[in-house]
Amino acid sequence: MSKDRLEAFSDGVLAVAITLLVLNVVVPSTAGLAGHHESLAHALALKWPSYAAYVISFMTIGIIWINHHVMIGRLREVDHAILILNLVLLLTVVAIPFATDLMATYLKQGGGDAELAAAVYGATFLVMSLAFTTLNRQILFPKAHLMHQQTTVTWRRATLRRASTGLIPYLVATALAPVTAYATLVICGALAVFYALPLASSAGTPNIGP
Fold first, then answer.
1. Residue 42: what pLDDT?
2. Fewest CB atoms within 10 Å of the CB: 11, 126, 202, 203?
């Protein structure tokens, strides 16, 4: 399979996943407003968890799309192992809309349900980060001979280290879910902002060498 076909398929899956997120943002029911004598502004304000989870997940998938393009762009061709690992990555990404809806629905309910929803949300991002790191490592080390340019081991290690920065924070976010679901949301949001910065998403210029 050509690299272009892998990228086209991946772009399509990521586009669907990021679009599905908005389906979790539901318009307040007019019947509910009439029954409780609430204003639309108040009803919209109550849905802030949906907006927060939507923005965080949208940014995260968008950053995955950017960094996936950079990662695959280093290759001149792909092999079976890269194709399979790429499918595993996409498998984790398409689970994000479900985890986002779960988080938004149960966050304000408190108790065990909110904590479990937050754990699922954090774990989804953690597994996605693991899948991305695994694919990136496969490209940078075992399959380095498939890259466009020869690069130094130092540069490849630095690139992998920068790309895997989110692993520990996502693990912390998941571990804190039983304590407070809000901490999970804040950490995932902070990571989305961090990865949106040029310093985090820039791959740098490869050093040519053995």
1. 78
2. 202
